[in-house]
Design goal:
By secondary structure, this protein is α+β, with helices and mostly antiparallel strands. It has five helices and twelve strands. Helix content is 35%, strand content 27%.
Length: 193
């Protein structure tokens, strides 16, 4: 009985050491490339395993420069409406360079969209996700461009979200916001065709 208890107490310690070693490997690789390491549980709080491959996290953040972020925030705060331009693969062939594009009708900047702008202004940085120590084959076309417009329909600024998500962690929050998903939800639109 004592041996079983001893073994049960060693297993969590061993697993935490393995996790630490895997986190360190990932963290060192991300920092060496100039990226921000992001714990998977902060990126995907409902399913941290989504951000792990073979026991090692594979997504890190590339900082969006502060001037660009300030311009986007200003456009969001001043906008009267938002228009979304979607780019997707034209076929299911991941090697195909062909793509298709569609523009959704502009929607008003409602309270939910304005609240996002206020929340995201408190985040110390916005990050474009990128792969770390992870090889990807194929061409991906899942890009969304959120264009913020004035009353006349003139563009004030745009947030372009590439294949991987753009995320930020608002002040006082323990996890990152998936900015694409939240913008679609607040605008009442769907990312699907």
């Amino acid at each position: 009985m004592k041996i079983r208890t001893l073994l049960l107490s060693i297993i969590p310690f061993t697993l935490s050491c393995c996790s630490f070693i895997q986190w360190q490997t990932y963290k060192e690789a991300a920092l060496a490339e100039g990226y921000v390491p992001i714990p998977p549980e902060e990126l995907y709080p409902d399913d941290p395993e989504q951000g792990v491959f073979n026991g090692i996290p594979y997504l890190a953040g590339e900082i969006i420069e502060s001037q660009k972020r300030a311009e986007i925030l200003k456009a969001m705060q001043q906008a009267v409406q938002v228009r979304i331009i979607q780019t997707r693969a034209a076929t299911s062939d991941i090697w195909s360079p062909e793509r298709k594009e569609r523009e959704l009708p502009a929607v008003p900047m409602n309270d939910a969209l304005r609240t996002l702008a206020q929340r995201w202004a408190t985040a110390p940085e916005w990050l474009q996700l990128t792969f770390v120590n992870f090889d990807v084959a194929g061409v991906f076309h899942t890009n969304d461009c959120f264009c913020f417009l004035d009353e006349q329909g003139n563009e004030l600024g745009r947030l372009h979200i590439h294949t991987l998500d753009t995320v930020c962690k608002p002040e006082g929050q323990k996890h990152y916001d998936d900015m694409r998903e939240m913008l679609y939800k607040a605008a009442g639109c769907s990312p699907q065709w």
